[in-house]
Amino acid sequence: MKNNNLTKYTVSIYTENNIGLLNRISAIFLKRHVNIESITSSQSEIENIYRFVVVVKVSKIKIENIIKQIEKQVEVIAAFFHTDKEIVHLETALYKVKSSSLFDEKHIQKIIKNSNANIVTVSPNYFVIEKTGWRNETEDLYKSLEPYGLLQFVRSGRISVSKEPMNITNILNRNNNQSNE
What we know:
It is a single chain. Helix content is 34%, strand content 38%. With 181 residues, the protein is α+β, with helices and mostly antiparallel strands. Strands 5, 6, 7, 8 and 9 form a five-stranded antiparallel sheet that branches. Strand 6 (118-122) and strand 7 form a beta hairpin. The longest helix has 13 residues, at 168-180. It starts with 6 loop residues before the first strand and ends with a helix. The model has no long low-confidence stretch (mean pLDDT 89).
């Protein structure tokens, strides 16, 4: 059943790095029957603070409730949600293609160049192409490379930064000041 009232949101969750937190965060989405389209985790701009980036399609009311539940987790410092218009976002994809295509099919070099992709390694049996861009760009390159012997394909989850400040440093400083009192 399709619901046209759903919006794609990118959720940013700043946390301490603790075992089991990813499981508890994903359980919050699971309990509300929300499918996670992508999830990434990495060190944030603040030392010893990690950031989860989760992409979901839900109503605004549902995402607001999810954010409240996520922020109840002890290790979570802050959680934010943004629409695509409020962030800059990209994904990275790797394509492993049989090497004979690179040498026998000159057209493939033009495909790589026109898509602003890079060849990152070449071996006698395969070569690997890296493409960073929006989802539709990585999918278009996939479709273009498929006829040339695509051996493997992998795409990262969304990575993003907000256009407006999220003030996570201010939140951390406020929390530290409260705990020192």
